[in-house]
Amino acid sequence: MGHFAYIVTIFLMVAGLFIVIARGNLIKKLIGLGIFQTSVYLLYVAPGKLLGGTAPILAAGYTVYSNPLPHVLILTAIVVGVATLALGLALVVRIREAYGSIEEDEILGKEGGA
Amino acid sequence: MNIAAHLPVLLVAIPLISAPLAVLLRHGGLAFAVVTAAAWAAFASAIGLWMQVAESGPIAYAIGNWPPPWGIEYRVDRLSSLVLLLVSGMAAVVLPWCRATLARELETDRHYLYYAMFGLCLTGLLGITITGDAFNIFVFLEISSLSTYVLIALGRDRRALVAAYQYLIMGSIGATFIVIGIGLLYLMTGTLNLADMAQRLAAVDSSRPVLAALAFLTVGISLKLALFPLHQWLPNAYTYAPSAVTAFLAATATKVSVYVLIRFYYTVFGGHLVFDRLPLPEVMLGLSLIAMFGASFIAIFQNNLKRLFAYSSIGQIGYITLGLSFDSIHGLTASIVHLVNHGVTKGAVFLLIGGMLAVSPAGRPSGRKRPEEAAPTFDKLAGLARRMPVTCFGIVLGGLSLIGVPGTAGFVSKWYLILAAMEKGQWWLVAAILLSSLLAVAYVWRFVEVAYFRAPPPGESGRSEASPMVLAPALLLVAATIWFGIDTSLTVGTALDAATQLTGGSR
Question: Which of A11, A16, B56, B124 has the most CB atoms at less than 10 Å from its CB?
Answer without folding.
Answer: B124
